[in-house]
Amino acid sequence: MRVSAEMRSERPRALVLRALGLGDLLTAVPALRALRRSLPGYEVVLAAPERLAAATAATGLVDRLLPAHAAGRSVPAELAWTGPPPDLAVDLHGNGPPSHLLLQRLRPRRLLAYAHPELPGIPGPAWRADEHERDRWCRLLRWYGIPADPDDLRIPRPVAPSPAPGAVVVHPGADAAARRWPKERFAAVAGALRRSGHEVVVTAGAGEEALARYVAAEAGLGPSGVLGGPADVPFDRLAALVAWARCVVVGDTGLAHLATALRTPSVVLFGPVAPRLWGPPARPWHRVLWHPDGNDAARPGDAHGRVEDERLLRITVGEVVDAVRDLPVPRILEGAR
Predict the structure, then answer these.
(1) Would you give the distance in Å from CA 209 to the centre of its chain?
(2) At 177, is the pLDDT very low, low, confident or very high (cuts 50, 70, 90)?
(3) Can you give the pLDDT at residue 229?
(4) C-alpha to C-alpha distance for 47 and 108, rounded to whole angstroms
(5) Which of 192, 196, 202 minimizes the C-alpha distance to 169?
């Protein structure tokens, strides 16, 4: 029988499932770093969308990406895993059962996952709905005896030069209307910052070109003030822009987590979901704007809703402009002056 090179390899393999978006990848960095440290000699494979290949490589924590994707935040129907079963499988995707069962079908020697009443054969801690995403996955690993620090979330700064060093980066897009602040308000913020002497760049993901160009035009920036749109900005260019930015103004979406990972000042606008679940760490260079109802609900709205969340609409243009002006200047820019 012919044995493939992969089957001949004695290097153990760990498969980590996190088939979600950029923000999800970056909130999992502390857990991925903990796994990398605890698994010397392992090949660490991340099951995630192929469009995150460059971002995954930039973390320096994963050896290989296994392309995996499903619509929305669903679990992929299958994984294109080849060769022997993984020595270790880790579910950083959800609390099961679909994600647990997907990994179980690969017959891993060991599976790390949250407990679920429908799958009594899988030990693990109890899932908590009201928990920050970074804390959640680190707590899972600690339950299995793997030290993990949710504050260990930085990724290396990119080596590529920034297309606009020192600029304020305004990102008006989000994958759901409920988390998308009105474009007119983003334009008003961008215009106010431009008039006060800031260079402003409006970023756009794939399919967001019209939105970004509206914001740029209304702010008086012109077409050259837009980066991206027809397709996602290549990750190395986007990361360089954010790493050398004066700050990032963004809703609850992936670019906010990139600013956190690169320690770039940010103003993050929250609506249907409380920042204690997805917000940046409490640091002087991050400012969260959120106007909840009179209760302490962690998810007072629908994060994937089709209309702008009422809490998001309570944030004013003046608040955002003032928050940007109050942020400390990044040390990396102070040294460049």
Answers:
(1) 21
(2) very high
(3) 85
(4) 14
(5) 202
